[in-house]
Amino acid sequence: MENIALIESFSEFKDDKLIDRVTLMAILEDVFRNALKKKYGSDDNFDIIINPDKGDMEIWRNRVVVADGEVEDENSEISLSEARKIEPDFEVGEDVSEEVKLIQLGRRAILALRQNLISKIHEHDNTNLYKQFKDLIGDIYTAEVHHVRPKAVILVDDEGNEIVLPKEKQIPSDFFRKGDNVRGIIESVELKGNKPQILMSRTSEKFLEKLFEQEIPEVFDGLITVKKVVRIPGEKAKVAVDSYDDRIDPVGACVGMKGSRIHGIVRELGNENIDVINYTTNTQLYITRALSPAKVSSVKIDEDKKTAEVFLKLEEVSKAIGRGGHNIKLAGLLTGYELDVIREGNIAEEEDDVELTEFSDEIDGWVIEEFAKIGLDTARSVLKQDVADLVRRTDLEEETILDVMRILKNEFEE
C-alpha cells in the first residue's frame, strides 16, 4: 500500500469524527512514530511530514555516513558503500536522508497502524466527551429517548452521545416512549473503562432550581436568588427565594399571575406541588413561612439542639403536617430545624378528646392510618374537618369518611 493510499484511508476518520486538522496530524504522527519505534528501535532520527490537504505524507530516515565495516548502529549510521548507492558522491561524516515507504514496515505493521489510529481517535473522542460533559454537570440538558429499559432510560442527544437516566433518578409519574424529548440535569460523568458514562437526573433539587432559572427571567437575570430547594420528587417541593431589590416581590414574580409562570415547572415535574416562600434570616419567621399553608401561632426555638416547637390551633395541625407528612418534613429540611407540632385548643375539649386508635374495634386500622398521615389522630380533630376536603387529602371514599364521622359523633353524644 502506497503512502498516499493509506493517508486517504486514514483521512476518512477526519470527516466521520469531525476532528480538526491539527489534532488529526498530531494523532497520525504519534501513530507512525510508534510504528517506527517497533521497527527500528527508535524514532529520534526520523522526520515525518504530513499533508492532509493533499492526503499525502513522507517519512525520512536520517543517518550519518561511516566507513565500511564501522557501522555500530544501523538505525543512525550507514556505511559509505551503501550511502553511495543512494548518491555516488557521499563522503564519510555527511548526513544521508532516505525516504521510507510504508510498505517497508510490512503488511502486519500497516494493519496495526490502522488499528492504533482507530484506538487513538476513539480515545481522543472519549476524552473530549468527558471534558465536555464534566463542564455541563448541574446544567439542564435535553435528549431523545432511544430505548427504555427496566432500570434506566437510554437517551441520545443531537450529536449521538448516549445519556443514561436511571430509574431512581426519574420522577415516579414519569412515562417515556421512544422518540420523546426528556429534560433533566447532567448529574455526573463517570469513566467506565475508557468510555464516559453520562448520568441524568430529574429528581435532583438542582433540576428544580435550574427550571426556575430557565422559566423566570428575574431569576435568570439575578434579580431574584433561589436560596434553597427541597423536594419529594413528584409530590411536593418548597423553594425559598429572596431579592435584594425591595421593589421586587420574589414570590409573586416566581409564581406569576394566577400561577402562570410556575405552571410550566409544575407540569414538567409531573404536577409536583411547589410552595414558593420568602427567605428571611429571622428563624422564627422562616419556620412560620416554611409551614405554609398552615397558620402558626408561635414558635419556640432551641438553637443548640436545632429543634423548634411549633404551636398551632387544632384546625391548623393537619395543614402543617400535610398529606403523608410531606409538608412538615420539607419545612424541616428547608429551615434546618427538627420541627415538633404542639396543638393549641380548648382545654376542656382536649381533655374530652379520644385517640383514633381507641376506635380500632369499629374502624379499620388502614383507615385510621390514612387520617394519621394528614395529622388527624384524635376524634375531635377529624370531626372538625370538611368531608370534601378529607376526600381530597386522603385516599378514602366519601362514604367511608361519613361512616367514620358517624362513629365518632356517637362517642361524644353518649
UniProtKB/TrEMBL annotation:
Alphabetical GO biological process terms: DNA-templated transcription termination; transcription antitermination
A GO CC term attached to the entry: cytosol
Residue intervals of the Transcription factor NusA N-terminal domain: 6-125
InterPro entries: KH_dom-like_a/b, KH_NusA_2nd, KH_sf_prok-type, NA-bd_OB-fold, NusA_N_sf, TF_NusA, TF_NusA_bacterial, TF_NusA_KH_1st
GO MF, any single term: DNA-binding transcription factor activity
Domain of life: Bacteria
Broad class of the protein's primary localization: cytoplasm
PROSITE patterns recorded: KH_TYPE_1 (PS50084)
Compartments, as annotated in UniProt: Cytoplasm
One matching Pfam family: KH_NusA_2nd
Keyword field: Cytoplasm, RNA-binding, Transcription, Transcription antitermination, Transcription regulation, Transcription termination
Keyword flag DNA repair: no
CDD domains in the record: KH-II_NusA_rpt1, KH-II_NusA_rpt2
Annotated ranges, domain Transcription factor NusA first KH: 202-279
Span of domain NusA-like second KH: 285-346
Function: Participates in both transcription termination and antitermination.
PANTHER family, A to Z: TRANSCRIPTION TERMINATION FACTOR NUSA, TRANSCRIPTION TERMINATION_ANTITERMINATION PROTEIN NUSA
Family: Belongs to the NusA family.
Subunit structure: Monomer. Binds directly to the core enzyme of the DNA-dependent RNA polymerase and to nascent RNA.
Protein name according to UniProt: Transcription termination/antitermination protein NusA
Organism: Flavobacterium saliperosum
